[in-house]
Predict the 3D structure of the following.
Amino acid sequence: MREFQTLVGPPPHEAAGIGALTLGGLLAEQSARVPGNEALVFDDPFRCGATVRWTYAELYRQARRVAKALVAAGIGKGARVGVLMGNRPEAVASLFGGALAGAVVVPLSTFSPKSELSYLLAHADLSVLLLQTAMGRRRFAADVAELCPAGTRPGAAVRDASYPYLRHVAVLGPAEHGCGIEPWERFLQRGDTIDDTLLDAVAAQVHPSDSGVVVYSSGTTDRPKGVLHNHQAVALQCWTQAQLFGRDESTRLWCALPLFWTAGLNAAMGATLAAGGTWVMQEMFEPGHALRLMERERVTEPHTLPHQAGALEEHPDWASTDLSSCTKVFGKSVFARHPAVTGDTGWNMPVGYGLSETCSFLTGHPSTTPRELLRKRSYGRLLPGNELRVVDPYTGQVLGPGEEGELAVRGPTLMEHYVKRTRAECFDPDGFFRTGDLGSYDTDGYVRFGGRRTEMIKTGGATVSPAEIEVQLQACEPVRLARAVGLPDDRREEIVVLCVELKNGATATEDGIRSFLRERLAGYKVPKRVLFFSEGELPMNRGGTKVKNQALLDLVQERLG
């Protein structure tokens, strides 16, 4: 019988730069260390765009106000507090305030339509909901008032059979748009009856093993999964990613990734605060405002999603904006091409593998990794305390170095379980989580990602990874977005069909795209057909980050008859 082969990362005690392992402890530690440093900068639409600046001391003070209000409302350890807010200081205070009070914080997606919001409120078993009145075109207060009329009677506990655990709702924003929900300041004033000694005693009983955060997956299905993490998982990711990104007190990060994604929660907010740096916040991405923020706030490290990068570069103010402060940029990024930017040659964007269930990074290349090593296309080595197995997805046999199979992981930031799922439903008998991703590792311990197992295309007896095709097209100049899918075929089982959205003003042909790929891929991996889609035509999830596979397949079948 073949023995299990498990790739093991360095022991946990070798991790550098690790501080308190509760979220409340992390903020308290940083507030004591750098109280006067600027933590958050935000141009507040609720204040006619006035700039709000919170130091670490002020952020800690505001978080304690939220915590006291929650304690006064009867919230105890383990109760769940939903936060339906964009990237704004009060959202960060609510997250840390809930943590200080021993609650489990649930950042809710601001992309969720009313029907999905109703599902999340019930599925998460929220006891308290903290929200803002509106953001852009969304009217959150109006939606909540319609879904839960019992939440519009300030001072009275909520009683609603649709949300049986919900007891309190409070709203931030103009009173005239609050729809009768308890105003933010009135909610905070509840905490005036709680003294510092009691709150300190409450916070002292919060342990790294206690449940801390629920992150709902932003997948392509209509029913997101709630991923429950303990305090250690989130806090450890914050400290670890501060090291991976090479951040310190001089860091001024601009990033519009939302807090309900682990990338926003950990890489944007958490790792910046763990370093003592400044997060320049933007509630909703708008390229002109983003450019003004980067110039005015002398941002050192900007982060974008691909579509945001394109919008910045196409903005008429792009070339004239002074982005000379942006030194933490990677070689192929849009910022590296800006005329005013001279990047730090000793810094590269950290590359790693992780997922919501591991609270982000499981493996990683730190920012100091030489570019020649990054060119080998690995996702780095395991971070301290983590373990990985490669499993044959059909037989369950554990494979060895150089053999591709499904990645199974275990480690200190792995989720406790999915909400309303037992651990036995989430993990194998050895406590490993089967990710659904394909990959391998080499004899030096470098991990490679091969795509989603459920998305692999079987054609002519061979297996094709959509991710491999899509990665190659990142170097194809006219292509803005590409997605490869498998279409049923009588002869080949499936054929590869490539769906392409071109950049504004760009042109390309089906033969041209196939010729481009033929130079880079084995012949059987080159798509049989290439279909072009207009901007916005590809069906995306509500976050605009993932293509809806089934909806895209329906479109492809309609196009091809």
The two ends are 50 Å apart (CA to CA). The chain has a mean pLDDT of 92. The chain has four domains: 18-255, 286-349, 355-454, 457-560. The first helix runs from residue 23 to 33.
